[in-house]
Write a structure and sequence with these properties.
Elements (H helix, E strand, L loop, with lengths): L3 H20 L5 H19 L3 H4 L2 H33 L5 H24 L4 H15 L8 H24 L3 H27 L8 H33 L3 H15 L6
Helix pairs in contact: 1-2, 1-6, 1-8, 2-4, 2-8, 4-5, 4-6, 4-9, 5-10, 7-8, 8-9, 9-10
Amino acid sequence: MPSIPTALALFASRECRSIARALANTRDRHGGIHSARKGLRRLKSLLNLGTDVFGADLGEIEARIGKLATGLSPLRDAHVALVLAQRLAGPRPTPAWVSAMTRLEHRRDGRLVEALHKDPRFLKRRHAVRDLGDLVERLPWRLVKRGVIEATLDEQQQRVVKAGKRVRKEATPTNLHRWRRRARRLRMQLQYGKRVLHASNKTAHHRAKHDKASTHAMSKLSDNLGAKQDLRALRAHLRALREPELTAPLITQIADELKKFRKL
């Protein structure tokens, strides 16, 4: 069985390869972009388990992850807006939804065409992921012991609680986004912590029950916050069409959906 540090390093390298494969997905470009974005988030969450021991080495890697994620964000957001619109429109969409979805689809596909024109086959991005993988492999993984991981999880739990308190005082989009980001990161880190213990044949001991409950809670919280954020993003996309007569009833429907998340 691999040690905990070795298992972590293997998972990180595997994540890099998965991101590269997603970017090479020509059958479903939009699905591949979405998978690559999620892979980058998982990789960053995993790497942050070793923040205290990686030190300055982690700075450049996080900057590269951020650059890749930022470049993919407009493509992912345009796709999610269309998928969400299709879900809200239902199996028998109104003429207003049909018109809006057509425009959202043109916008999404136009962004993809432009991105592929600048970076054919996403080769530059895939090379960047390969270089990123080389840097990840050279990190001092041997220093990421079990105690380091557990201390990081405890610290991240506190950060989630702090972000939640800030939202309850002032539920601004910025505070909500921070809360979601921290909850999502903790969920991913808890999941990786469990996988690493399993891969290295270690028992969870006293943390097992607590971590299982925390993972469930963070999954529910991040999913709900994500749904709320996606609804707001779709509303912004519709307003950007600048056709209030067309989009007014659609925005009203979105407002009704947002009421379900009023307590967040």
